[in-house]
Amino acid sequence: VQIEVVTIGDELLLGFTVDTNAAHLARQLAAQGVAIVRRSTCGDEAHEIAAAVREALDRTGAVITTGGLGPTSDDLTKESIAAIFGRGMHRDESIVENLKERWKKRGWPGDLPVANLQQAMVPDGCEILTNNHGSAPGIWLEDERGRWVAMLPGVPREMRGMLADTLLPRITARLSAGAEAPRVIASRTLRTSGIAESALADKLGPLAKAPFGLSLAYLPGVEGVDLRLTSRGRTAAEAEPVFAQATAAIHELVGHNIYGEGNDDLAALVLDEMRARHITLALAESCTGGLLGARITAIPGSSDVLLGGVVAYANAVKRSMLGVREATLATFGAVSEETAREMALGARERIGADAALSITGVAGPGGATPGKPVGHTCFGVALGGDVHTFTMNLYGDRAEIRERAAQAALFALRRALAKPAS
Amino acid sequence: VQIEVVTIGDELLLGFTVDTNAAHLARQLAAQGVAIVRRSTCGDEAHEIAAAVREALDRTGAVITTGGLGPTSDDLTKESIAAIFGRGMHRDESIVENLKERWKKRGWPGDLPVANLQQAMVPDGCEILTNNHGSAPGIWLEDERGRWVAMLPGVPREMRGMLADTLLPRITARLSAGAEAPRVIASRTLRTSGIAESALADKLGPLAKAPFGLSLAYLPGVEGVDLRLTSRGRTAAEAEPVFAQATAAIHELVGHNIYGEGNDDLAALVLDEMRARHITLALAESCTGGLLGARITAIPGSSDVLLGGVVAYANAVKRSMLGVREATLATFGAVSEETAREMALGARERIGADAALSITGVAGPGGATPGKPVGHTCFGVALGGDVHTFTMNLYGDRAEIRERAAQAALFALRRALAKPAS
Question: Tens of pLDDT along A225-274?
Fold first, then answer.
């Protein structure tokens, strides 16, 4: 099965908006064995929409569009595509009722504005794709020859919801009407931290290229290097055991550095473990300035574990709020393992937590000194009776160095938690 | 002048990579008066590339491609497009020299790998577009009728560099060969905070739709509502005074809420003002958990102003690290203007700063209590002898509420700084 996607909107074409819908559609469809063979973007004008959709329809007979379903005069998707199919338009009263109900439910004053009724105009002979996440319904239009266009809204949240709720099940049902299981593109991601891309490839040895006939991509980012295994040409049932084999083989070689799969967030994993073991946490941040705290507290329920922290940006604050000694700062400098140790101990004691993490480094672009270049970052992990300190030379710009530092601190804490209690 | 863009790559088509090149190209070209009328994305196969580029060339005669110029067997852009033009391929020795020099300069061991020589193969009769940011050179291919394809690399940094260094000047020169100044698409953005989209439109009155013949878009986000004025069909010189007029008229009506233009960051503006006035800052964050500190310290040189802060997530930390009174927490609750006031005063005193900001709120999804729904957030601004407190009901999910809270705190500080000293 081959599909084309047409994303519609001047905002996309002019580059004011980056087209994230297209990538989302592609990933979701590939996972169902549907290949997108071409993607086009056109502006809001009726003739542009009609041309782009007609050409796509001629090539594949199956087209998904996004955008142009709203209530304004710019929204011409339905009319333009109805014209390709030689269909007229009519008002769908069930949509009108739905819009009126939405309006009332929100407690907005007065009656539904006339402009909104435009959203109830649909091509003759179409089917409505319900929108549970917004007001513009989607449209499915099909001709006698089985050629079809599915029109989804452009707002990403609504598009994603409608795709999952309505369109994907419909496409999957069409596919399973055929005889055999579809060959899908499926992928699995292993997340690593604390190891460089080249070192990973070295350690993986003969697996580094195409383990068990899967393709392996290295995706370096500020949270570490993700390993993406991709299977092509297998059915979902065939792909599963190959992924399991490859994952086990990779774990054997670099398991030490793998902290999760898919979209796993290291902060969430660390929190879960600390919550289960009733260990509370305090933070002492210098160069990250609150970034580690912000990352941890982005997770609902983090207050079970994180009591608080100190952003000790100025040296005076390291002394007054964390009890770092003047002599330590004078002898070893603010960016040193000695200072990191006292920051972690001070945070743990003053905040009254069981464990503490500290970060102090040179985030750049200024601030480098001889022996302490931009990226030079010292960490402290206070857990149990132990304070572990270490130094990393992180690379990238200021933002990257700070994010890498937060991730490195979490990874160190995770390793410390994994050790048997001293 | 009309151009089509074809972005090439399986990664784009499969949705593993979001196509940011397309948006960048569109914005840069629009600013030169060049309209992109269609954008297509195809996979790495030669016949797909040839079909997409041929169709685009038939429609406009002017095509920019990105991707497929690398050294691997997947990189088929040059061959596929040469075939459309009926051209053969040859090896360009100047590129070979360049590649060899790059290899040596980097100190890599051994000779240039044979695979890299693929990058030196170019279509007969093409022009080379120098790449100052990577190894793959770009290609300009033109036929007797003046139809052309410009091939740029897919790596965003290299694509952007080559566009700026080489391709835009070339396209601009072509345009200026014509008689008159090109009609461009130009835009200007005014950034507002502390006012809802609908209230903005109300206050702008008759300007709300199309001030001075410009189109006006409302772009709500976590930092507030941006107002984007867009001019179409004017030359750059004609657009400038219209922007100035419209900006002045909008300032007259809602200037109180406008804090900047373009990509201005409110945190940077506040820092600049405090630095100039030698005012230092301390933070006390509860629900934002360090996000405000992270945002401020993302800016190089923020240490001139920000001394530090306390992330007081647990009530015990609000008491021990900020001196919030037990009675205040018991009587008014942790999310109250009374607590916000004591947090700000405590942070200012203990950190020894001139000014302090505090935030305490219900970020959700849990934590709501009667009278304090999710999004209910209290702020304190300590500046001079004064502590100003206020409450906002912020909307969105947890992440949005926290970002809105950080922005609201900065906006309140900016207003406090603008007041005559008390």
Answer: 999 998 988 988 999 999 999 999 999 999 999 999 999 999 999 999 99
Longest dimension (CA), chain B: 85
N-terminal to C-terminal alpha carbon distance within chain B: 59
Of B25, B38, B283, the CB nearest to A52: B38
The 10s digit of each residue's pLDDT in A296-340 is: 999 999 999 999 999 999 999 999 999 999 999 999 999 999 999
Q: How far is CA A364 from CA A96, A295, A351, B197, B301, in A?
A: 57, 21, 29, 38, 9
Q: Is A36 on the interface with B (CB under 8 A)?
A: yes
Rg (CA), chain A: 28
Interface of A with B in 71-130 (CB under 8 A): none
Give the Cα-Cα-Cα angle A24, B66, A160 (nearest 5 degrees).
10
Question: Would you call A290 and B309 a contact, using CB atoms and an 8 Å cutoff?
Answer: yes
Contact A311 B314 (CB under 8 A): no
Task: With a cut of 50, list the residues of chain B below it in pLDDT.
Answer: none
Write the DSSP symbol of residue A118. Answer: G
Helix (H, G, I), strand (E, B) or coil at B4: strand
Q: How far apart are CA A178 and CA A166, in angstroms?
A: 20
Asked if A384 and A358 count as a contact pair (C-beta separation under 8 A), the reply is no
The pair of structure tokens assigned to B266 is 């409110």
Full-model pTM = 0.84
Which of B20, B55, B300 is the closest to A365 by Cβ? Answer: B300
- Enumerate helices (H) and strands (E) in chain A, giving the number of each: 15, 17
Q: Is A314 on the interface with B (CB under 8 A)?
A: yes
Q: Which H or E run includes A386?
A: strand A386-393
Give dist(CA A255, CA A252) in Å, integer: 6
Chain B residue numbers touching A189 (CB-CB < 8 A): none
Radius of gyration of chain B (CA): 28
